[in-house]
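I would love for you to help me understand the pair of lines that follows before we discuss the fold together.
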Amino acid sequence: MTTLQKRLLITISILTAIMVFISANLFFAFSINPNQLQVRYQTIEDQKVSKDMGIFSIVYFTDLQYGTFENDQRLEKLTSTIEELDPSVLVFGGDLYDDQFTPDESSNQKLIKAFNSIEAPLGKFCVLGEKDINDENRSKAVRSIYAASGFEILENSSVRLTSQNHSSVRLTGLSTTPDYNILSTNSNEEYNIIVSHYPDNLMDESLASASISLALAGNAHGTQITYPLLGAYKKAEGATQLNRAKSEDLDFPILLSDGVGCTDVDARLNADPEIHYLLFSGKN
């Protein structure tokens, strides 16, 4: 075999390997990954959480995007998984419907039934995403679903989570146009969780002086498709400063979720659908 033939063989082998790699990634991105729901478990120990609260857990999920790609089968898998986790508190981070889908009474009732099947003894809470409020009819539909399924919408407001008459965790929800003044009343004696649909809203300078124990955010879907070495295929509004491809050092820990559903394209690569199970334990 001549030198030229050897080089040609090596080139063909490399190109073949690249094609197989790309084909495999595309297959998983479009056929497998969108149907895979991962549960991310995390135990949080903090002296601000009273041991007297007993077993205290939060399930956090975001960006359902129901309607266009997120079908009834995926919705059933989501709700049954959350039911099995049996959380004390359920928190949803916004974008209930996909913006390419028009809600109707049938879809509203399906979501109400699904969310009503989930029990959370210390409450179900949510914030609104930009797709929840991009027109009046959609906003009315989303709000009616939450009202009928026991969710409290946190719009620049907060609640104290109480178990066995012990309250040591405060949950604050920021709207897409946040009023940070609500955080000025946070006590350093409490474990303070804030939920923001937009990660970028957590970059505000005023938060550096606020008492924040943990921040939850989503919106960007983990960029949904992240190519090895090449990075993400797009950036999302509200997540241009803080996303998987661009991290920042904040004064508090942040959980940036990849979300549940798909938008624009029914595909996920290196950003599996996920929900988060947070188990809290006190140190005192």
Residues 36-282 form a domain with the Purple Acid Phosphatase; chain A, domain 2 fold (CATH 3.60.21).
